[in-house]
C-alpha cells in the first residue's frame, strides 16, 4: 500500500509538471507568434524588394499590390491617387488586386470612404465590420470587405497624394509592429507616384514647349532674339522669308546687319524701356539682295538665366505703307478738287454743325474760319426757309441723299440763290 505521504508527493509532482507544461506551451505559443511576425516581416521585406526590382519598373504598382497581398495573405490590395482639386474630390485607382487577379482601374468619390479619413490620418486600421463603419462606401460592399488597413501616401510638403490599402473578406488584424514596414512600403509607393507625376508634368511641359516652338517657328509675323552683344540667337521662318537668308546665315549676324537704322537693343533705347518693358516702333530692314522694306517692331527686353535678351516681333508693313500712301494721295486729290471748284462744299456733323468746308464758303459768306467753326448750317439760310432746309438735312443724314432749292444768307444779310445737294 502507498502511504498518505507518498500520495501527497506524487500530487505535488504532477501539479509541478502540469505548470511546467503550461509554461512551455505558453512559451511555444509566444515563440510561434514571434516566428509568425518575423515570417511576415521577412515576407514584407521580400515583397518590397521584389516589387522594386528593376525588371518591374514599367509596372511597379501592380507588382507592389501583388506582393503585398501575398505577404499579408489578404484578398484585396489597392493603390490609389487622390484628386483633390475642384468640388468633386475622388480617388483614382492605380493598381487593384482581387483574389489574385488584377482589375481594371476606376475612380470613386472620396466622401464617406476610409480614404476620406486618411486625408487627416497616417494609418487607418479597421480590423472588422468595416462596412458598418463606412456604410456610404460602395466599394466595401462590392468586395465584401470585413477588415481594412490603409496608409496615406505623402507628397511634397507632407501633402496627401494617395493611399495604399489592403482589404479582406474576414477580420484583418495587422500588429502594430508591422506598421513601420507597411509605412516603408507606402513610402516607396509614394516615391514612385511622385516620380510618375513629375514625369507626366515634364512630358506635358515638353509637349507645350514643342507646340510653342512650332507655333513661333511657323508664325506669320517674324520673331527675332538677340543677346546683349546684339548678335541674333533665334529667327523664325517668317524672318528668313522676309530677308531672304537661311537660318544659319542669320545666326551669324548682328542687329545692324539687317536693321541698319535701328541697331540699339530695347533695353538701351532712349525711351527708358528695360527688363520686361516693351516698345513698338517702325523702322527699315534690309534684305539679302540689298533692298529695304518698312517693318513694325514690337520689342521686349527680357532676362533669362542671368543673361539679357531682346525679343522682337517683326511685321512687314509694305502693303500697309502703300495703302497709307494711296489714301493720303486720294485725300490730297480730294482736297485739291474741293478747293478748286467754284461751288460751296461743307461737311456737317449729326447736329447739323459745320466741321469742314472749302475756302469758297468763307469767300462767299464773308465769315472768318473761327466764325465758321461749329456754326449751325441753318444760320446760312433765311428764317422762312429754315424748316424745309432742316427737313432736307435730316433726309440726307437718314436716307443718304437730298436736294433743295433755296438761298444762302451771308454775313452782311445778302441772299444768294443756290441749289443744295446733300449726301
Show unreliable segments.
Answer: 265-273
Give the strand tally: 16
Number of separate helices:
13
**What overall geometry do the principal axes of the alpha carbons give?**
elongated
Estimate the helix proportion, in percent.
40-55%
Radius of gyration: 46 Å
Sheet of most strands:
7 strands, antiparallel
Beta-strand percentage? 25-35%
Please, what is the average pLDDT? 83
- C-alpha termini separation: 153 Å
- SSE order, one letter for each helix or strand: HHEEEEHEHHEEHEEHHHEEEHEEHHHEE
Output the structural class.
alpha+beta
What this model shows, in words?
- This protein has 423 residues and is an alpha+beta fold.
- The protein is 42% helix and 26% strand.
- It has 13 helices and 16 strands.
- The protein has helices spanning 4-51, 60-72, 114-118, 130-133, 138-143, 179-217, 237-243, 247-250, 255-258, 318-340, 359-365, 369-372, 386-399; strands spanning 76-83, 90-98, 101-102, 107-109, 123-126, 147-154, 160-168, 222-227, 232-235, 278-286, 292-304, 307-316, 346-348, 354-357, 402-409, 415-422.
- Strands 1, 2, 3, 4, 5, 6 and 7 form a 7-stranded antiparallel sheet that branches. A 5-stranded antiparallel sheet has the order 9-8-12-11-10.
- Strand 11 and strand 12 (307-316) form a beta hairpin.
- Helix 1 (4-51) packs antiparallel against helix 2 and helix 1 packs parallel to helix 6 (179-217).
- It is elongated.
- It starts with a helix and ends with a strand.
- Residues 265-273 have low confidence and may be disordered.
Amino acid at each position: 500500500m502507498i502511504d498518505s505521504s507518498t500520495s501527497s508527493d506524487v500530487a505535488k509532482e504532477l501539479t509541478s509538471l502540469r505548470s511546467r507544461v503550461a509554461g512551455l506551451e505558453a512559451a511555444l505559443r509566444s515563440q510561434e507568434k514571434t516566428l509568425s511576425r518575423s515570417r511576415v516581416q521577412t515576407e514584407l521585406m521580400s515583397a518590397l524588394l521584389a516589387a522594386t526590382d528593376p525588371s518591374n519598373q514599367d509596372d511597379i504598382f501592380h507588382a507592389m499590390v501583388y506582393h503585398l497581398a501575398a505577404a499579408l495573405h489578404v484578398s484585396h490590395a489597392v493603390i490609389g491617387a487622390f484628386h483633390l482639386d475642384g468640388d468633386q474630390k475622388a480617388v483614382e485607382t492605380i493598381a487593384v488586386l482581387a483574389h489574385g487577379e488584377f482589375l481594371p482601374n476606376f475612380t470613386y468619390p472620396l466622401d464617406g470612404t476610409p480614404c476620406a479619413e486618411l486625408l487627416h490620418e497616417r494609418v487607418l486600421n479597421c480590423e472588422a465590420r468595416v462596412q458598418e463603419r463606412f456604410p456610404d462606401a460602395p466599394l466595401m460592399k462590392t468586395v465584401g470587405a470585413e477588415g481594412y488597413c490603409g496608409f496615406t501616401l505623402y507628397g511634397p510638403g507632407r501633402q496627401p497624394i494617395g493611399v495604399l490599402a489592403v482589404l479582406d473578406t474576414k477580420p484583418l488584424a495587422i500588429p502594430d509592429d508591422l506598421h513601420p514596414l507597411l509605412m516603408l512600403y507606402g513610402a516607396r509607393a509614394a516615391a514612385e507616384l511622385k516620380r510618375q507625376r513629375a514625369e507626366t508634368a515634364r512630358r506635358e511641359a515638353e509637349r507645350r514647349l514643342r507646340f510653342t516652338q512650332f507655333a513661333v517657328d511657323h508664325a506669320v509675323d517674324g520673331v527675332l532674339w538677340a543677346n546683349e552683344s546684339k548678335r541674333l540667337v533665334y529667327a523664325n521662318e517668317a524672318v528668313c522669308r522676309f530677308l531672304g537668308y537661311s537660318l544659319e546665315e542669320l545666326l551669324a549676324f548682328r542687329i545692324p546687319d539687317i536693321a541698319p537704322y535701328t541697331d540699339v537693343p530695347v533695353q538701351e533705347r532712349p525711351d527708358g524701356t528695360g527688363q520686361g518693358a516693351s516698345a513698338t516702333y517702325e523702322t527699315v530692314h534690309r534684305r539679302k539682295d540689298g533692298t529695304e522694306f518698312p517693318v513694325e517692331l514690337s520689342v521686349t527686353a527680357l532676362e533669362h538665366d542671368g543673361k539679357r535678351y531682346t525679343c522682337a516681333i517683326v511685321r512687314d508693313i509694305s502693303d500697309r505703307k502703300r495703302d497709307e500712301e494711296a489714301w493720303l494721295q486720294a485725300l490730297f486729290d480730294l482736297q485739291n478738287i474741293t478747293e478748286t471748284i467754284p461751288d460751296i462744299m461743307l461737311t456737317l456733323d449729326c447736329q447739323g454743325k459745320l466741321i469742314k468746308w472749302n475756302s469758297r464758303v468763307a469767300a462767299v459768306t464773308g465769315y472768318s474760319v473761327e466764325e465758321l467753326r461749329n456754326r449751325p448750317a441753318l444760320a446760312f439760310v433765311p428764317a422762312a426757309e429754315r424748316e424745309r432746309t432742316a427737313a432736307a438735312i435730316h433726309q440726307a443724314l437718314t436716307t443718304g441723299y437730298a436736294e433743295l432749292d433755296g438761298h444762302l444768307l451771308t454775313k452782311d444779310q445778302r441772299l444768294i440763290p443756290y441749289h443744295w445737294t446733300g449726301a
